[in-house]
Amino acid sequence: MKYNINRRKLLVTSALSVLTPVVASNMSVAATPQTSKSDRSWDETFDVVVIGSGGAGLTAAVTAAEKGAKVLVLEKNSFVGGNTIVSGGAFNAVIPEDAKKAGVQDSEQLFFENTMEAGGYRGNSWLRSSLKM
């Protein structure tokens, strides 16, 4: 049998397989809309309601569940992943040792400057002072 899987599907599936046992007892996921108003039941209470099952939403849900909260994750799609599922899987990081080996310049200051420029300088540069750099 031949399987068609790409990196994105593998990452999402792997993440879900790791997360599911950790939070299953404290977390519910609602991805499928109810078929009619009479089928709806609103008799359950949750400590935390997370809107969206992308990387940030699932991280928030897992963290809350690990702290003992009863969590509900709401997702508009019929699958989990949100915008994270359509990302290229890349992220920016400062790794001076790797940059040096590659013969390119890299530093936390350069990272900060590039990030601010890429965001049209709309970020709050004063937040940087709270980070250890």
Can you walk through the features of this model?
It is a single chain. By secondary structure, this protein is α/β, with parallel strands linked by helices. It contains 4 helices and 3 strands. Strands 1-3-2 form a 3-stranded parallel beta sheet, with helices on one face. Strand 2 (about 50), helix 2 (about 55-65) and strand 3 form a beta-alpha-beta unit. The longest helix has 17 residues, at about 5-25. It is elongated and about 65 Å long. Mean pLDDT is about 75; it is low at about 20-25.
Helix segment tally:
4
State the low-pLDDT regions, or none. Answer: 21-25
- Rough outline: elongated
The SSE string, one letter per element, is: HEEHEHH
* SS-based class: alpha/beta
Radius of gyration: 20 Å
Task: Give, in spatial order, the strands making up the sheet with the most strands.
Answer: 1-3-2
State the end-to-end CA separation: 51 Å
Q: Give the % helix.
A: 25-40%
Mean pLDDT: 76
How does the major sheet shape up?
Answer: 3 strands, parallel
- Counting copies of identical and different chains, the oligomeric state is single chain
Provide the β-strand percentage band: 5-15%
Number of E-type strands: 3
What would you say about this model in short?
The protein is 35% helix and 9% strand. The protein has 133 residues and is α/β, with parallel strands linked by helices.
Which SSEs are present, and which pair or pack?
Layout: H1 7-23, E1 27-30, E2 48-51, H2 55-66, E3 71-74, H3 96-102, H4 108-118
Parallel strand pairs: 1-3, 2-3
